[in-house]
């Protein structure tokens, strides 16, 4: 029997004990639509303070939906979240516009946004997720671009330790412990251009032992379970939960914008074209 969810008196205990959302995007980032089921639907104002902190710029009048599975990427690992929509029928328009996706500590994935007028959702209801294809492609190219910059640096200066990665539009950069200067920029750019030109495959796998991986973008080494690893043509290994294009050539032109330094940390800022 399908039970209608009460947005005002939603049972907090059941919410906290709800099963984790299956992150389908980790296994198949090519999917742009997915049929799944509603677990919960509630106003942002009824979330816990911890959950609200995941969506500080979202209006309390907006709503949050969790589902059994999702193909929408939640913000994290230096990558912004997907946007998209949730429909109740294949032949109708979106019933809910997704503006932000975030993952909770207990593995639930919250889809924040606004429902269409008079839209209601019920527990167990079948819905269709759709990903904003243009934005997903751009974020994937930007994320893969960061890995290319990282590999270019690894090949050029293997002694430089990567300490941080950011793949947000307008902020994309890779940070390293040590000092880099403007004279390094042409060398890094040349290595990046060559890796794009070679059109190397982006290989994704899962490993149980992450002791030899850099803990920058992916899951921490202190967490249980397998770790997802991204590799460019087998030349590197990075823990990574983000979305990627399938080959380096699909990223398009990568521009090393500038190199800056602060307190012994060097930042290599980069960008890719929003559209190819």
From TrEMBL:
Pfam families in the record, alphabetically? Answer: tRNA-synt_2c, tRNA_SAD
GO BP annotations, alphabetical order: alanyl-tRNA aminoacylation
Q: Where in the cell is it found?
A: Cytoplasm
Q: Which cofactor does it need?
A: Zn(2+)
Its main subcellular localisation, reduced to a broad class, is cytoplasm
Q: Where is the Alanyl-transfer RNA synthetases family profile domain?
A: 1-256
Q: Which GO terms describe its molecular function?
A: alanine-tRNA ligase activity; ATP binding; nucleic acid binding
Name the Gene3D superfamilies on file. Answer: 2.40.30.130, Threonyl-trna Synthetase, Chain A, domain 2
Q: Which GO terms describe its cellular component?
A: cytoplasm
Protein family membership: Belongs to the class-II aminoacyl-tRNA synthetase family. Alax-L subfamily.
Task: Please give the name of this protein.
Answer: Alanyl-transfer RNA synthetases family profile domain-containing protein
This chain's source organism reads Penicillium decumbens
């Amino acid at each position: 029997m399908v039970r209608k969810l009460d947005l005002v008196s939603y049972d907090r205990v059941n919410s906290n004990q709800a099963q984790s959302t299956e992150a389908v995007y980790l296994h198949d980032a090519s999917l742009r639509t997915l049929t799944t089921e509603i677990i919960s639907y509630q106003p942002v104002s009824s979330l816990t303070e911890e959950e609200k902190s995941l969506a500080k710029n979202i209006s309390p009048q907006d709503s949050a939906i969790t589902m059994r599975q999702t193909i929408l990427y939640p913000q994290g690992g230096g990558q912004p979240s997907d946007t998209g929509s949730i429909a109740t029928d294949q032949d109708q328009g979106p019933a809910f516009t997704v503006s932000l996706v975030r993952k909770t500590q207990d593995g639930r994935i919250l889809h924040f946004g606004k429902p269409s007028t008079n839209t209601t959702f019920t527990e167990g209801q079948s819905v269709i997720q759709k990903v904003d294809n243009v934005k997903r492609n751009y974020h994937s190219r930007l994320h893969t671009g960061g890995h290319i910059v990282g590999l270019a640096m690894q090949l050029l200066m293997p002694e430089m330790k990567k300490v941080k990665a950011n793949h947000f539009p307008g902020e994309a950069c890779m940070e390293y412990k040590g000092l880099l200067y403007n004279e390094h920029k042409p060398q890094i750019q040349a290595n990046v251009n060559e890796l794009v030109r070679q059109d190397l495959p982006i290989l994704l796998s899962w490993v149980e032992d992450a002791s030899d991986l850099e803990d920058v973008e992916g899951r921490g080494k202190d967490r249980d379970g397998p770790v997802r690893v991204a590799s460019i043509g087998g030349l590197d290994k990075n823990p990574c939960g983000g979305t990627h294009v399938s080959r380096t050539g699909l990223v398009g032109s990568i521009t090393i914008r500038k190199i800056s330094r602060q307190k012994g940390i060097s930042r290599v800022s980069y960008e890719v074209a929003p559209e190819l």
